[in-house]
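Holo prediction. Input below; ligand is S-adenosylmethionine.
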Amino acid sequence: MNKNQKLAQWLEHRISYDAKARNLNVETSCQEYLKRKNHLKIIDFGAGTGANCRYYFSKISQEQEWFLVEQNEELLEIALESLIIWAQENGYESQLQNSRLVLTNQVHKITIHRIVGSILDLENLIDLNTFDLAVANAVFDLFSEKQFQTLLECLKKYQLPMLATINYTGMNFIPQTDNDSDLIKYYHHHMQRHQDFGRGMGPECGSFMWEAMKGIGMKVLQGESPWEISNSDPVFLEFILGFMEESIPEIIEEATLQDELNTWLLEKQQMMSQKKLSCSVAHQDFWGYWE
Ligand SMILES: C[S@@+](CC[C@H](N)C(=O)[O-])C[C@H]1O[C@@H](n2cnc3c(N)ncnc32)[C@H](O)[C@@H]1O
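Structure of the complex:
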């Protein structure tokens, strides 16, 4: 399995957790706003394998036209396959018309376009004039403050509202053991390490997003969207520990810290095999619109 296939597997596994976590207050407020439109043109930032649009399909009663913007072409290929499977499982006919996928049943029509490119190059990718909504799920903790600000300026230019869900703000293991806070701190340092675009916001994205959206003149509603991962889902816990195991060594230099990480991981694996480990992960959702 290559890296993208593994990433796709993770994105699929988290769907039910995201669905449970999404803040209904925030979501309902967005739905209210969209009620008066009879056709919706929506852009999905960092669409990955299309999990976000699949979540919203059944929540929208109007005719829908989706534009999935994703920089990873292989994920968008997987998105196409997943969308066709979704259609079969949910009583829709699917038709590939040139590069568009059209899903229809007796009452609904959903058109999906896939666009390979960066969210930060939007104006060169599509004409933003006719869109009703932008959505993004689990994307902005990866962005730097500057990138997020640039995106907001673009949204302002086109008065495009945005529903941004599942933005990571922190985690903790239950029960807590020695070194948890150190290791989680290293994990956060890795998210905020220096990269070619600057530093990712990581767990600080929530407070920055709130300030930046307000600052640019949006009306903003914010809500919590936590995951509760029980001790009976070792696959999910394995994913989280795996991310920590892969990323932390990239930012630690001393051998003693690597030993600390190894010992800690071993301890967590043992707790997991005895079904004694669970985890909660904090996120925030934002609905921002223009008046
Ligand atoms: C954690 S995944 C979430 C995927 C999807 N939204 C979901 O809910 O399953 C974050 C996605 O954002 C994409 N991404 C990050 N920065 C991007 C950028 N500047 N332009 C386009 N896509 C980006 C990544 O390639 C990745 O697929």
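The longest strand covers residues 162-174. That is the main takeaway for now.
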